[in-house]
Automatic annotation (TrEMBL):
GO terms for molecular function: heme transmembrane transporter activity. Belongs to the CcmB/CycW/HelB family. Pfam families: CcmB. The chain crosses the membrane at residues 26-45, 57-75, 96-125, 131-157, 164-185, 197-220. PANTHER family: CYTOCHROME C BIOGENESIS B-RELATED, HEME EXPORTER PROTEIN B. This is Heme exporter protein B. It comes from Thioploca ingrica.
Length: 225
């Protein structure tokens, strides 16, 4: 068990190092996230009451699309240079490789979104009492986006133009996360309890952590065959 964990740590460190060497690419999802949210006050209304109503949905849709931007490259480089095939043929666990890749993707994309979201929530006049709920929903929801998205990426990694197909496969699966996460922030803004929505997101995260690495590993084997 310890050698496998060491192997997973090496894979995680490798992906983070490669990402650090391409820092300009790391900024793209974050800039997209900021720009999309900043455009809504200009395109709809600068009035605080109007922005408070749409803020939860806007922030979550922007976070979802920002996460989608970097998904296509999750396994692409490893597939093109043959690393993925060598890992699949090795004695090491392929689901562990998937977990390391997904964790690296979340650290690079999901975690910065969580850190930026409260400031953008203030830009959209979200009440201070809802910011903690916003952080909680993003903390539970963004790992689900990475885990579920990895399954779609694994199915389309062998296709030359799999970006559109990836969106068609993954976006419908993101809908429950979007509904309950944005709904929790809306309910918090109205002063209602949000434990039910957070429990549901926690259940989805547990289910994704359990099944998504196995499904992604199976999909990668299908793409390599």
């Amino acid at each position: 068990m310890i050698p496998e964990l060491s192997y997973g740590y090496i894979l995680l460190k490798r992906d983070l190092t490669l990402a650090y060497r391409h820092r300009s690419e790391l900024a793209n999802p974050l800039l997209f996230f900021i720009i999309v949210i900043s455009l809504f006050p200009l395109g709809i209304s600068p009035e605080s009451k109007d922005l408070q109503v749409i803020a939860p949905g806007v922030i979550w849709v922007a976070a979802l699309l920002a996460a989608m931007l970097s998904l296509d490259s999750l396994f692409r480089s490893d597939f093109e240079d043959g690393t993925l095939e060598q890992l699949a043929l090795s004695s090491h666990s392929l689901p562990l490789f998937v977990i390391a890749k997904v964790l690296a993707h979340w650290l690079i994309t999901g975690l910065p979104l969580i850190l930026l979201a409260p400031f953008l929530g203030i830009l959209l006049f979200l009440p201070d009492t809802t910011l903690l709920t916003l952080i909680a929903t993003l903390s539970l929801g963004t790992p689900i986006l990475s885990l579920v998205g990895a399954v779609g990426v694994a199915l389309t990694v062998g296709l030359r133009r799999g970006g559109i197909l990836l969106s068609l496969l993954v976006l419908p699966l993101y809908i429950p996360v979007l509904i309950f996460a944005a709904g929790a922030v809306n309910e918090a803004a109205r002063g209602f309890p949000v434990a039910g929505q957070l429990y549901f997101l926690g259940a989805l995260l547990t289910l994704s952590l359990t099944l998504a690495p196995l499904a992604t590993a199976a999909a990668l084997r299908i793409s390599l065959s």
